[in-house]
């Protein structure tokens, strides 16, 4: 672990340095003033990737120094981002209770008076480093937990088969985006997609092949609805839905047409379809026309539009 030794006296600095070195501490850095120490900390701590060598695990801080006194220096160290958990041991000739109090108030963790007993210094260094080790361990655990939570959160909003958002995520996102559309005074569009004659597809090619087909369609939709803010979701068994924030009806219709065309161009054989020899999709489009649109209203409109696309011959977009 790394120790920063701050003392204006070269004698003391080197004495502590050699003592620690002898005990096997390898990463020892010396600073002759608080200013130098702080400069060193800034140089190392605010880098993106701190190596074990650049990390500071403990500071031994002199009390009386000509530029900035130890107590003040403690405060300054604590004010540096990322230096809140690094133990500081004050090593000082001042022994009065007021200085001691001020040192702890400034953020020192421990205190040793000069001339110090070497065994005592070593014992306090060991204890402080142990504390730092425990803090680091706890922090690493917290980081891991955070990552796991994030992953769980992501997993709980994703459809297992297709990898697009699931219904739960869609419901949340639609509410959020409707509110945002009101706030930003923009139009929001929703596009609902249903595979044509998919029951016949399953009956002909089997359910497993049906699942593969769903995945392929989902991939096409992912390509189409990929603007930041767009949400592609599996709405039901063979139905998908795309939220298109900040998109008017023409824009949404355009995106829907591209999706329809791209699916057709995949040329997934479907011998039992009544509209093509390939798998096709029908699409409904709905757009908010004022700022009093509820989730129910826009979903009912998009559902009706999809119904029209089916009624009018399938493999088409309807608004
Ligand atoms: P239309 O053109 O009117 O949409 O006809 P359709 O046959 O697609 O409509 P229908 O709603 O009658 O059938 C949908 C089919 O989708 C029935 C169901 O077995 C199938 N399906 C739903 N979810 C899944 C799934 O997760 N995997 C597979 N393979 N099939 C599914
Ligand atoms: Mg001094
Ligand atoms: Mg359906
Ligand atoms: Mg269908």
Q: What ligand species are in this complex?
A: 3'-deoxy-guanosine-5'-triphosphate, magnesium ion
Major sheet description? 5 strands, parallel
**Separation, N- and C-terminal Cα atoms:** 66 Å
How many strands in all?
A: 10
Question: Whole-number average pLDDT?
Answer: 95
Description:
- It is a single chain.
- With 319 residues, this protein is an alpha/beta fold.
- The chain is built from ten helices and ten strands.
- The strands form two sheets. Strands 2-1-3-4-5 form a five-stranded parallel β-sheet, with helices on both faces. A five-stranded mixed β-sheet has the order 7-8-6-9-10, sandwiched between helices.
- Helix 4 links the parallel strand 4 and strand 5 (110-113).
- Helix 7 (198-205) crosses helix 8.
- The chain is elongated.
- 34% of the residues are buried.
- The model has no long low-confidence stretch (mean pLDDT 95).
- The structure holds 3'-deoxy-guanosine-5'-triphosphate and magnesium ion (3 copies).
- One magnesium ion binds next to loops.
- Keywords: Phosphoprotein.
- The modification 4-aspartylphosphate is found at residue 62.
- InterPro entries: CheY-like_superfamily (IPR011006), Diguanylate_Cyclase (IPR050469), GGDEF_dom (IPR000160), Nucleotide_cyclase (IPR029787), Rev_trsase/Diguanyl_cyclase (IPR043128), Sig_transdc_resp-reg_receiver (IPR001789).
- Residues 186-319 form the GGDEF domain.
- It holds the Pfam family GGDEF.
